[in-house]
Specification:
single chain, 274 residues, alpha+beta, Diaminopimelate Epimerase, Chain A, domain 1, 18 strands
Length: 274
Amino acid sequence: MGDPRQLVVVDAFADRPFAGNPAAVCVLDAPGPQGWMQAVAAEMALSETAFVVPTADGFDLRWFTPTKEVELCGHATLASAHVLWADGHLDPTEPARFATLGGPLTCTRAGADAVRMDFPADPTHGADLPEVASSLGWPGAPVHVADSRFLLVELPSPEAVRDLAPDATAITAACPEPVIATAAGALPGQVGVSCTSRVFGPMVGIPEDPVTGSAHCTLAEFWGERLGLDELLGHQASARGGIVGMRRRGERVELEGTAVTVARTTLEPAAGPA
């Protein structure tokens, strides 16, 4: 089924090449060695590289940044489901069911192009870390700081989020986990957007993540409560940018987006798993 030397690069949360967040996907017949998977992810130098292994009732899925394995990743899950369906590993009418470190995840097709992903909700609680905002380059006091899987810093406007000039060294010193900077509403030209965000994770080898699906599990809960909405649309205002649909479902959040295959690469025999 899978070739350990073949990787597919997919732009996730994108409707065209060179937008959204790129992820590399490797479909394997059997689990690869931990050190090899980490080395491949470092070589690919993308936010995440995903490794997919078929099981009796679905697929095992693991994600690696250039420096470490992570417990939950949205865009590389979307990319993995896209590859399974597009490359004939799974019938497009069947759901992609993944066992992951972050728990069971399910992806289904939503119309002709979109993928709907069932993820755990990530509610926030207050945090007393005002220095986080200054590490992002925000000169004043944040509106609010909260903690979850991410640190979340609320700023007064989408423009404030867009214009941040973060210091990666300062973020790493101030923040134990990746940081979401966010504000309610949309930038000019963004229609229907409920919230704007950017995500920074230099402590896990990702200075700025282009589009972060798992962060929208946090944003769905944070802004859903404040705006009184169960269905939201998020715009991640990185240089590449991307749109993430969110639907609150109790202890779960549905994330929705599109994906585009942009490249295929083959490792040389010496670079395959030992």
